[in-house]
Amino acid sequence: MNKEKLVNQSINYIMEHLNDDLSLDTIVAHLYISKFYFSRIFKEVTGESIYSFVKRCKIDQSAIDIKLNPEKTITDIGLDYGYSSSNYSTVFKKKLKTSPSTFKESLPVQSMSSPFIPEQTVHFKSYEEYNALIEVQEFDDLPVLCERFIGNYIDLEKNWYQFLDKNKNLLSAETILVERFFNDPSISNSSQCISDICMTVPNDYNSDNLELIEGGKWIVYPYTGEIKNIFETLQGIFSIWLPQSGYTMEQRYGLNIYHQIDRDCHHVVMDLCIPIK
Fold first, then answer.
1. Is residue 75 domain-resident?
2. Could you tell me which residues come within 8 angstroms of residue 73 by beta carbon, excluding any fewer than 6 positions away?
3. Looking at residue 52, which CATH number applies to its domain?
4. Are strands 216-226 and 193-199 parallel, antiparallel or unpaired?
5. Taking the complete model, does pTM exceed 0.85, yes or no?
6. Domain range spanning residue 61?
7. In this predicted structure, what is the pLDDT of residue 1?
8. Would I find Nucleotide-binding among this entry's keywords (predicted)?
9. Count of domains observed in the chain
10. For 203-213, how does the pLDDT look when each residue is reduced to its tens digit (9 = 90+)?
């Protein structure tokens, strides 16, 4: 297995176990490789040490938990990620430039600055408006061809077109185009956001880049509009609908499923999907 695939597998494992003990020994035991080799290739592929990556992802995910669980105390959320109360506040403030209590007091919000266009303010709909369009669906497992990108989500449109052009011989009327996203760009550093661009392929297709998108229960919101406005809609679902919905987000990636893409108009028809339990 090549080193990029090993690192990607480790990232998948880390993102699904952020509130578990994620020592180097734990991670390499899951991968069955040497911790010295793994530490070296992880830094080589990501530009970041495994310790720094896990610490950053824990704090980012804890901020999402504060956003989605307003009834939960900051102390309990910190404990979920292995921090004492005072240590959690210190690490959180160092990473996100605000204390967890100040962050919580700023929620919920009806609008925010776009992380992609800071001078642009995005405005959210009401819980009732989101709820009128959201459905809960059961998804089957989906084998896909994937490419991972770590960087600014604003580059996803360009990355998608390059991916589709490179694999155009695999496209058919039955192809499903799926994007996995692991970060909230209003919280995570924009240059460190993780995403996977994926497509279903014929059954006889073999590649080292084939992966399985796990099924389960998802909320599905139909979106039709410009690519630049996807962030506004997703943030509205996260900030307004989900905390009031009674559902709990499962700790893994979200999905964007594309049905139509108009390159010239930068317009899409798609489903925005969040895993729940």
1. yes
2. none
3. 1.10.10.60
4. unpaired
5. yes
6. 3-105
7. 63
8. no
9. 2
10. 888 887 788 99
